[in-house]
Amino acid sequence: MTIEEIIAFVEALDGALAIRPGPEDGSPEISWGDTFFFYSPEGVMPKATQPFATIVTKNQPGDERSRLDRPDTFRVNMAAGKESFINWTGHAPREPAIDDDPSVTDAVIAHPVYGSVAWLAVVNPGQRTDAAVRELLRNAHHLARSRYERRAGSTS
Fold first, then answer.
1. Residue 7: CB partners within 8 Å, gap ≥ 6?
2. Do you know which Pfam families this protein is assigned to (predicted)?
3. Which residue among 3, 99, 119, 120 has the highest number of C-beta atoms inside a 10 angstrom radius?
4. Inter-residue contact 7 to 18 (CB < 8 Å)
């Protein structure tokens, strides 16, 4: 899967919004080239809401072991939810992970930084993980939509 294929897949989900920071929008330089996915049926950047998935294209502070500085390397990250996280990793999010190699490609792993809050990740998703990434993105979108609807219901 390419970055563009992932973005197109997510943007086709009802109410999904892709934010792609760049120098023209005043966002921090570290986010340029990355993509952040939100559930926003209004089509505007939601306030005080975390993305349900991201694509990162470079090492982040504290996450150099992922080696995203390799040519043509990126990672898709998904807020999987506890049940899905356990299904994929075999352990609860807050339990210590078996020493996953965060630089391995085309494999579903606990996110090297946010695994403790049930995020999963795939570096350079390919043939082995294509279906899994799509399933995980749909699930992350569903969870974000459910949170949005609960919040909207509690304010009406």
1. 18, 20, 35, 55
2. DUF6194
3. 120
4. yes
- Distance (Å, whole) CA 105 – CA 64: 15
Q: 40 — phi, psi (to 5°)? A: -150, 85
User: How are beta strands 109-110 and 35-39 bridged, if at all?
Assistant: unpaired
Kindly report the length of the chain: 156
Task: State if pTM tops 0.90.
Answer: yes
Given the structure tokens 């109410």, which residue do they identify? 15
Residue 56: half-sphere exposure toward Cβ, Cα within 13 Å: 25
Which tokens is 49 given?
């809401």
Of 148, 156, 149, nearest to 48 by C-alpha is 148
- At 88, list the tokens: 């994929």
Which amino acid type is present at position 83? Answer: E
| Residue 51 near residue 31, CB atoms below 8 Å | no
- Token look-up 């630089």 returns 103
* Residue 139: how many other CB atoms lie within 10 Å: 19
